[in-house]
Design a protein that fits this description.
This protein is mainly α. The protein has one domain. The protein has 14 helices and no strands. The two termini are 27 Å apart. 50% of the residues are buried.
């Protein structure tokens, strides 16, 4: 196989594995390691803002034209706001739900946002693919309602909100014509500035009492792997494979989430979860293969 294609596959799969493991790492940190949701947000956005701030600085003229209000809306949909909703959901929902419901909801919400904000009429093939993904979301949500844990549904609703806000984030970037890399830098910087005082006034005192190895691991997992490495790896994958082929690798996200949740956290692989993930895979592949050129 062409080395360029192999490298593109490696980068894309690596990014998808990081995204798929996000819910598992967050659930483990919240449930078993004594972290607060604001700890995870601080570890995610303070290093991310420092490392990605130069992207915003280079495009400061364009970002000034976009305006602070729109950048704050983007931060709510794709930065600190989205992150806190997602992580907060994992207080109740299992990691397997976090790694499947949110990423499966995002393209459905993105299509709705594209229709409302950009007047993009989805084709029949894309509607069929999105309906398949939505069916997968309902299967996994039903799994939560059928479980013994009484509050899983609360987490699932928050995961739906997190996925929906991410879908609107992408549509707003296109509506307001904000370049992707400068937007990522600006959102990281604004999120870091917003979370820092909240974190210092709240759980920071407890965070510094945790073992240094736990602190370091969370900084690496949230700030470096999730905040920087996954974005750069996926971008490189798009450059090597093209956007259509690279986007198909997103099917790795729910698979990774289900497997890691089962292996690391001991969460059961129920029939509804497997069915929901299978529908998600079919829908994601269909959305690209049926309408990839669009």
């Amino acid at each position: 196989m062409n080395p360029k294609i192999l490298a593109g596959l490696a980068f894309g799969i690596g990014a998808s594995i990081i995204w798929g493991g996000h819910a598992v790492v967050a659930r483990l940190a919240l449930a078993g390691q004594g972290f607060h949701p604001l700890d995870l947000a601080a570890c995610r956005f303070i290093p991310g803002g420092l490392l990605l701030g130069h992207l915003a600085w280079r495009a400061r003229v364009r970002l000034r034209e976009v305006g602070l209000l729109k950048l704050l809306v983007l931060t709510a949909c794709g930065g600190l706001g989205n992150f806190l909703v997602f992580v907060g959901a994992l207080v109740w929902a299992p990691a397997s739900h976090g790694g499947t419901i949110a990423p499966m909801t995002a393209p459905v919400a993105g299509a709705l946002a594209g229709w409302l904000l950009l007047a993009e009429q989805p084709t029949r093939g894309r509607l069929l693919a999105l309906a398949t993904m939505l069916a997968g979301v309902l299967c996994i949500g039903w799994d939560g309602l059928a479980s013994d844990a009484p509050d899983v549904w609360k987490g699932d609703l928050l995961l739906l909100c997190a996925g929906a806000s991410w879908g609107f984030f992408g549509a707003l970037l296109r509506r307001w014509q904000v370049p992707a890399f400068p937007a990522a830098g600006a959102v990281a910087v604004i999120s870091g500035l917003l979370v820092l005082p909240l974190w210092l006034a709240g759980p920071a005192a407890h965070f510094v009492m945790l073992p240094w190895s736990s602190q370091l691991w969370m900084l690496v997992a949230q700030g470096l792997l999730l905040g920087v490495a996954a974005m750069l790896m996926f971008t490189r994958s798009v450059e090597l494979l093209g956007p259509t082929r690279a986007s198909t690798l997103a099917v790795v996200v729910p698979i990774t989430a289900l497997l890691l949740a089962a292996v690391v956290l001991g969460e059961a692989l129920t029939a509804l979860k497997v069915l929901g993930a299978g529908l998600a895979l079919a829908g994601m592949l269909g959305a690209v293969l049926l309408t990839g050129r669009r």
